[in-house]
Amino acid sequence: MITLDTKVEEIMRIPGIVGFCIQKGVSLITCSDVFPDTIGKLLKIKNVPDPESFVNDLNVHVERISAQSSD
Amino acid sequence: MDKPMDDRYQLYINGKWVSGGGDKTFESFCPANGEPLAVCVDACQDDVDDAVEAAWKAWETWKDVSPPERSAMLLKIADLIDQNAEKLALVETLDNGKPIRETAAIDVPFSSDHFRYFAAAIRTEEGQAVMIDKNNMSITLREPIGVVGQIIPWNFPLLMAAWKIAPVLAAGCCTVIKPSSATSLTLLELAKLLDQVVPPGVVNVITGSGAAAGNYMLEHKGFRKLAFTGSTEIGYSIADAAAKKLIPATLELGGKSANIYFPDCPWEKAIEGLQIGILFNQGQVCCAGSRVFVHEEIYDKFVDEAVAAFNKVKVGLPWEPDTEMGSQINELQLEKILAYVEVGKNEGARVVCGGERITGDGLDKGAFMRPTLLVDADNKMRVAQEEIFGPVAAVIKFQTEDEVIAMANDSEYGLGGAVWSRDINRAFRVARAIETGRMWINNYNSIPAHSPFGGYKKSGIGRETHKVMLNHYTQMKNIFLSLSEVKTGLY
């Protein structure tokens, strides 16, 4: 379960997550390294208007990926 | 091909190679074929503590080493880089995925030149003395700021290390420097060369992830300054960490630079400039010319010739000498770039070349992508506003000089940019009007040591390269002398 306090590093293990987040307006990776803090902090920096909703969408994406891989 | 790097690297602290206090390591991979290259140490907090302590101890004597002696050391470092140029170029190519023709002709020689430039610049430092009046003299000197923390990105690992370390040594500071965990190897190789010249503790290299070693550095109270090259997102964290400690930070961050073409541009050079702007280093350049503004009079012809030129670019294994574009830094970066292409298509831009990864011919295991142009773009589109960091340019039509200036400035970034025109008055007018730290006229991505580089707006604070860097790593000391023996009479 992803929350606003989840480190971006941990989220990066989810297949397709980088592309999914770009579609939603946020880049998890940078020219330094993976963003080195929580997803909540990144969403705040990126001025995402509804961070809770963004994280909910991430969790739905994770569930969909899990369902696909177990099929 | 013989492997040019070690199988395993340690941390470089206090002039010694040490395994560090933790037990974590990470592997460095070649982006072009996925082969593991070397194992590096994922530094822990104790390692950062040790490095900072060593740096301060070294600074006790290093700050008093004379400019001529420091200059001589910088020259020796430059010579050592040149003597090891072939090896450094190959390590960089394998670790980063960029073509050997770029690492051999640009990354390595520009790095040694940087040390030579600052070897010369430090000899010109003179301070100032002013007679305020007959009896009072004001002397202004620059003094080294102390121990600095530096973090560099993966797109130019060796060159960014040179940009950071050369002015630090010239200024009389000591450093703890961390490369991106994606590309640690050339900085570690550079440390081997520095070890032959620089006293222990003056330069300390910490490797590891941004989330661990990077954050330990940001939280550390022992730095007098932070210097960072990387993304704007992380730039906020660096600025925040510096503010909490009330120390300065130099930030060289992201960009979405405008590359502007007028009908009277020098045509063939202009088309090449488009390629240099967005294909150099696989487009993974903070000042990449990723927004291409083309005057309506030449738009169709320009796009046709640009497509032809882009389609001729040889994308291939980076160690092959005829490769013009190598691999993106990793699979995740490629995923990001391809996702932006989809964003652009959904916004209404048209892909006229590229837009897809390349496989086959030995490229299956890398992150290779075709040079890409998104035409009929609009400056409000996300692909024209957000940093993609890949070989993808959004091409936008314009009609007037005022219109293109307004569009170019309609960006949160302000790092680079170019204007192409034979009308010097217009070129200069446009260059002055664009809110950006660097404007090229009739060229792109030239980055010599002796011209200052850095951003306006969200592209950063402070400058890199140029002798102005000596101001960033020193602070001003004023000594005020009264030459009179007579009391002031105030008491």
Structure description:
The complex is a heterodimer of chains A (71) and B (491). With 71 residues, chain A is mainly alpha-helical. Chain A is 54% helix and 0% strand. The radius of gyration of chain A is 12 Å and the shape is globular. Chain A starts with 7 loop residues before the first helix and ends with a helix. The model of chain A has no long low-confidence stretch (mean pLDDT 92). In chain B, the strands form 6 sheets. Chain B has a 7-stranded mixed β-sheet with strand order 14-15-16-13-12-18-19, with helices on both faces. A 6-stranded mixed β-sheet of chain B has the order 9-8-7-10-11-21, with helices on both faces. In chain B, strand 12, helix 9 and strand 13 form a beta-alpha-beta unit. The longest helix of chain B is centred in the N-terminal third of the chain and has 22 residues. At the A-B interface, helix 2 and helix 3 of A face helix 7, helix 8 and helix 11 of B.
